[in-house]
Structures are given as C-alpha cells and as structure tokens.
C-alpha cells in the first residue's frame, strides 16, 4: 500500500497526544523517515514527467511542457511496514535545459530510472549515452537501475520490439518494463515499477533526513533549496492539478 504525504496517512497506533504534542510527534516521524533519491533520465519527450506524475499524483497530467533543469516530486510508500519517502527527480531531456543543473542530479542518488519512448528509435539509441553520463558522474554501479519503455499505448507505432529492449536491458543488468503513463489501465503497472524499486531500496543506505521548516525543506548536503518557488529555482513544473501534495507539482 502506498500513501501520499499530504493525505497524512501516517500509521499511528499510540494514544492520541494533545495538539502541540501531536505536531512534535508528526515532525519526529517525518524527520526520521528514510529518504531515497531516484533520478529519472532519458531523451526529451519520452514521458519522464508523465511517469513521475502518474506515480506521485495518480493521474496523467492534462498538459506538460519541456522540463527546465529538474522537477521534483515525492511520495511516501509503505514497504513491509516501513514508510519510505521516494524523491523522484524528473530531469530535463533537452541538453540546453540540463547544463546548469546536471551535477546536482547525480549527487546522493539511490536509484536510476532510464526511460525511452517505444515509438521512437532515437530515444532507445540514446540509452548508452545516458548510461555513460551516469558513469561520468561516478554513479555507484551497485545502485538499482531500471529500464522503462514508455508510450506502449501507441500500439500502431511501436518501433522497438521487446526482444531488442530485453537484450539491451540484460546486457546492463537492468529489469525491463514496458508501460504507458497515459493508459489508465496501465496505472497499476506504473505503480508496480516504482514499488519494485522501493522494495530494492529498502535495504539500501538512505539519504540524510530532511529538516522540515514550514512548507519548505532544507538539506545540509545539497544545494537544491525547496523553500524557493520553482520559478525562483529556475525550474519548470508540470501544469494543472490541485496542488495538494507536498513537494510535488500536482
Ligand atoms: N501516448 C502517450 N503519450 C505520452 C505518454 N507519456 C507522455 N506522453 C506525451 O509525451 C509528451 C512528452 O511527455 P513528458 O512527460 O513531458 O516528456 P519528458 O520526457 O518529461 O520531456 P522533457 O521534459 O523535455 O525531458 C507529452 O505530450 C505527453 O503527453 C504515454 O504513455 N503515452
């Protein structure tokens, strides 16, 4: 079962404290929760924003624009009774929107999701380049990596067959998932992809806890300051949605 932070579905069986005590208790739980940073990379337009939005916000976005720099979504998931916070870093596929932020993506990463578009051969052919970029930034080779072919709903335009994708995934020791962020009937599948990752991460070393200040975050070992608005940070956010999820653009 997965819960969103904003829905406040934190499991708490202890006697109910007074309101001031309760806020301290909630704060303690939040600061102790293990946090995992997952970067989502691949060519522009393959659907990275839509996949992360589907997982964190539970729907396909009405409208997206090219990501500038990095966008950030998060969701709390329950794995075998432990609540883990997954931070999904939705990175820009376009080189001109990546330059200024690229070194920050690769800091303290716990998992990587490589995304290609099953209807676009060039996005598949770019994958070795994305893997090389990870190597260039000294990403630990042991961290979980998954390979996702998106846009499977466009059945009449499939350009990369499963065998080819599977061979590539096998040669890089990655599980392959073919899915669609758009197709409602594949929503559980997108869920399963990230939950598979969450299970793998459960035994991994977490990031430092985040310190919560009001509605924003600060992190001592990272320059990204979530206190600032996306605009101030020079980031592009997916449009639409009800704006109720913490750290998320939905
Ligand atoms: N048919 C279909 N279209 C999709 C799917 N996922 C995304 N799209 C569309 O593909 C386009 C690009 O989606 P994005 O999620 O913005 O792509 P991105 O990889 O984040 O792109 P950058 O931000 O430029 O790196 C949009 O028009 C989406 O509506 C999918 O599963 N099926």
Automatic annotation (TrEMBL):
<dbReference type="InterPro" id="IPR001806">
    <property type="entry name" value="Small_GTPase"/>
</dbReference>
<dbReference type="InterPro" id="IPR041822">
    <property type="entry name" value="Rab33A/B"/>
</dbReference>
<dbReference type="GO" id="GO:0005794">
    <property type="term" value="C:Golgi apparatus"/>
</dbReference>
<dbReference type="Pfam" id="PF00071">
    <property type="entry name" value="Ras"/>
</dbReference>
<keyword id="KW-0449">Lipoprotein</keyword>
<keyword id="KW-0547">Nucleotide-binding</keyword>
<keyword id="KW-0342">GTP-binding</keyword>
<dbReference type="InterPro" id="IPR005225">
    <property type="entry name" value="Small_GTP-bd"/>
</dbReference>
<feature type="region of interest" description="Disordered">
    <location>
        <begin position="1"/>
        <end position="24"/>
    </location>
</feature>
<comment type="similarity">
    <text>Belongs to the small GTPase superfamily. Rab family.</text>
</comment>
<keyword id="KW-0472">Membrane</keyword>
<keyword id="KW-0636">Prenylation</keyword>
<keyword id="KW-0488">Methylation</keyword>
<dbReference type="InterPro" id="IPR027417">
    <property type="entry name" value="P-loop_NTPase"/>
</dbReference>
<protein>
    <recommendedName>
        <fullName>small monomeric GTPase</fullName>
        <ecNumber>3.6.5.2</ecNumber>
    </recommendedName>
</protein>
<keyword id="KW-0378">Hydrolase</keyword>
<feature type="region of interest" description="Disordered">
    <location>
        <begin position="229"/>
        <end position="250"/>
    </location>
</feature>
<dbReference type="GO" id="GO:0005525">
    <property type="term" value="F:GTP binding"/>
</dbReference>
<feature type="compositionally biased region" description="Polar residues">
    <location>
        <begin position="1"/>
        <end position="23"/>
    </location>
</feature>
<dbReference type="GO" id="GO:0032482">
    <property type="term" value="P:Rab protein signal transduction"/>
</dbReference>
<dbReference type="GO" id="GO:0003925">
    <property type="term" value="F:G protein activity"/>
</dbReference>
């Amino acid at each position: 079962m997965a819960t969103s932070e904003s829905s406040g579905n934190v499991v708490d069986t202890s006697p109910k404290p007074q309101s001031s005590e309760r806020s301290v208790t909630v704060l303690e739980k939040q600061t102790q929760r293990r946090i995992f940073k997952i970067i989502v990379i691949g060519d522009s337009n393959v659907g990275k924003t839509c996949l992360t939005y589907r997982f964190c916000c539970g729907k396909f976005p009405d409208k997206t624009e090219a990501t500038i720099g990095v966008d950030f979504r998060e969701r709390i998931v329950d794995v075998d009774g432990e609540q883990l916070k997954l931070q999904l870093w939705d990175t820009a596929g376009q080189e001109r929107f990546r330059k200024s932020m690229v070194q920050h993506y690769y800091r303290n990463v716990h998992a990587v999701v490589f995304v290609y578009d099953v209807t676009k051969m060039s996005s598949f052919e770019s994958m070795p380049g994305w893997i090389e970029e990870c190597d260039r930034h000294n990403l630990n080779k042991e961290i979980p990596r998954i390979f996702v072919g998106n846009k499977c709903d466009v059945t009449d335009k499939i350009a990369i067959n499963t065998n080819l994708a599977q061979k590539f995934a096998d040669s890089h020791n990655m599980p392959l998932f073919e899915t669609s962020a758009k197709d409602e009937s594949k929503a559980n599948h997108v869920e399963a992809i990230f939950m598979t990752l969450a299970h793998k991460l459960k035994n991994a070393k977490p990031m430092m806890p985040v310190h919560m200040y009001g509605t924003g975050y600060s992190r001592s070992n990272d320059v990204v300051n979530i206190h600032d608005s996306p605009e101030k940070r020079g980031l592009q956010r997916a449009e639409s949605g009800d704006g109720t999820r913490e750290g998320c653009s939905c």
